[in-house]
Amino acid sequence: MTAAAIPSERATPRVAILPWYVAATLVAATSAKVGIIWDISWHRSIGRDTFWTPAHMAIYLGGVLAGLSCGWLALRTTFAGPAQARAASVRFWGFRAPLGAWLGVWGALAMITSAPFDNWWHNAYGLDVKVLSPPHVILALGIWAIQLGSLFLVLALQNRTSDEQRPPPYGVLAAYLVGILLQNATTLTIEQLGFANVAHSALYYKIAACALPLLLVAGARAARLRWPATTAAAAYMLISLVMIWILQLAPATPKLAPVFNPVTHMVPPPFPLLLVVPALAIDLVMRRVGPGRDWLLSLLVGLAFLLVFFVTQWFFTEFLLTPHARNFIFGADQWDYSSRLGPWRYRFWRADTDPVTPRALALAALLAVASARIGLWWGNWMARIRR
Questions:
Q1: Model's pTM, two decimal places?
Q2: Is the Cβ–Cβ distance between 111 and 146 less than 8 Å?
């Protein structure tokens, strides 16, 4: 044998390629999220003129793509899958598939079911008064399901990869999907967290303390990555910024009365929360404390998150209400076509009726610690997913 033909003991093991069905669920999760942001902008800029809007098609494309890819995986694993694939599956009604695939199938069915329901709802009751109308709740549950399904599929691949192998980018993909989940959380709480004007009220910090540490901490514990929470927060912010910058370039004309603010282009979403800063604090604390001390860790992480988030958002939102933020980069001071514009745009809302007091911050701190503890429980469970 020649020297070139002799296998080297120091050769790096071959890394498995990302399966196509996992890539399909990643595209589905992204398409659904982009569609939701686009649809909200469509409602704020044009109104609901028809069900067949491009934004709706992007949403339901995500459901169809997730349903087809996960359904195919279930059929293949059940009837033609190798023993290794069947061992890494969950049995349901006689069929076998990974847990993430079952979530994808269920989510797709929920999303498709919500489509005619939403169309009937709008025809019967007109525009939505609140974000969470009954058909939107079904749709939101379906979207969460396909995105969690994609996350679980990625984590199962990550957790089955031995430490001796050169790690594929599963950790990065997992953090990206956690960033999408953060997008979901801020979309559902857009009335409480979305606008800079509410950042000097106590409810703002209580809602943030409930929802955000859970996702950031869970992702930080589950993803094999050096800076998992920071990466997830960066993905969340990047999605928002790209949508802000793209939507402002699209022309739009309101089609439903009354029109008090004649917009000429798509109204972008509000500037995202600066989650990279508290997420960096979470990563630093978790690396410092390490595993095996989760009760202490939840206390330190919860307090660190609230402290850094409070300082960051308190002053950054003051900047967003100034003329310096009224430009293409920050996209501030852009309102729905139905808004009666006035000086209220440059003021903090509910600062007098719901002020930030030491008692309110203490309650927010308790909520942040509890959220972090639940996040650690969930993250520990996700770190053990193998099927």
A1: 0.89
A2: yes
